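Running co-folding for S-adenosylmethionine.
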Amino acid sequence: MNHSLPLSQLLGHAADAVQAVRGGESLTTALERCPAAARPGAQALSFHALRWLGAAQAVRAQLAPKAPPPAVDALLLTAIALLWPNAWADGDAPYAEHTLVDQAVAAARARAKPSANFVNAVLRRFLRERDAVVERALRDPQARFNHPPWWIDRLKTDWPAHWQAILDADNQRAPMTLRVNARRGDAAAYLARLAEQGVAATAVGTHTVVLARPSPVHLLPGFAAGDVSVQDAAAQRAAPLLLGAGLAPAARVLDACAAPGGKTAHLLELADLDVTALDADPKRLVRVEETLQRLGLRARQIAADAGDPAPWWDGKPFDAILLDAPCSASGIVRRHPDVRWLRRASDIAALAATQARLLAALWPLLKPGGRLLFCTCSVFKAEGEHQIDAFLQRNPAARLAAHPASPGHLLPLADNVNERPSPGPRPVADGFFYALIEKT
Ligand SMILES: C[S@@+](CC[C@H](N)C(=O)[O-])C[C@H]1O[C@@H](n2cnc3c(N)ncnc32)[C@H](O)[C@@H]1O
């Protein structure tokens, strides 16, 4: 990491973000308060701290059983996470340990002067006794897996053979994945453009490219002109799955939870469709318009509740519906390391109830012979397989398409990729659930 600001300042901003997440706020919102110059550095440090927060909390509880005030605690936890052994297994540790301790102490002095000695003492003791402290901390599953216990238990129940691999994958850094606009080219042609600029990348699908290192979008060739978009490989399955063998030109398609528009745009890149992009959040809908404008695509946009069609539906049935429903986001923890600490166990049943309400409201809008693709970026069966099993029970005219047209759960593991094998040991794609339902 090469940032112009002193590390102590970056640690302070990262600790502010960690404190906000521990207080229930999303990391994205918390980082918006960070001064622009400090944001990339603070983001990198806070991502790391949240990936190792379970471990850091167990260490702090051993070395300082009485929690310090929240601002000091967040700083201490951030520093401990950065000093946790092997935390940088998928990349080099960016700071020497003694630098980190010195800078954390300077950050503590700036936050609450009297806390500097305390932070210094805890961090130095951690370094002195690290092997024993770590060994004791790892007896706690929340420290070992860096997820809350209820989340670990749910994964154990849903995925008895894969729960550990999913948890470990959640703590890795996600690759930056691109979707090449099918109206402009394909992955092979775009790889050649990247190579001209010395950017290393691999194709993992006809239109899917994984960058060896993340890049600011403005440096990607043709980004502003709409040649390429950023989208995870698993999310790139949605549009082809809904289109299947193809829809008639100008087929009426509803994208019921569209914002920020990644899947809407992909549908329109692949086929000439009459798309209605709906989202309950008008602010997020603005991003759909921005996405479509950059790509030179068009869709009707409506800000409304998909679960209450009466005010916005013109009564003409849709040929196809995409329901990318609000969910726990348990499949995209790599990209959103705060999610696991923000969710509560009770959220899952509430989200599943919302998904069931949306499915029930939208099903009557689908033409007989039409298809509905239900998806969530979740690995929990309550938001996938179990949700759809219950829907099929309630709706005799609904028939689940056979695999691979309806792939079901895609786990965020190394062998879960679009068309081609993973280029490395790290999982390429996020966790997702897809069910393609046909109306008989
Ligand atoms: C998973 S995101 C959609 C991502 C989007 N399909 C994409 O690929 O870019 C879920 C979206 O559902 C929207 N949403 C939540 N409840 C809704 C409702 N009752 N009606 C319509 N949209 C809703 C949220 O505002 C959010 O934008």
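Result summary
Residues 257-263, 278-281, 284, 305-307, 324, 326 surround S-adenosylmethionine (CB under 6 Å).
The chain has a mean pLDDT of 94.
Job closed.
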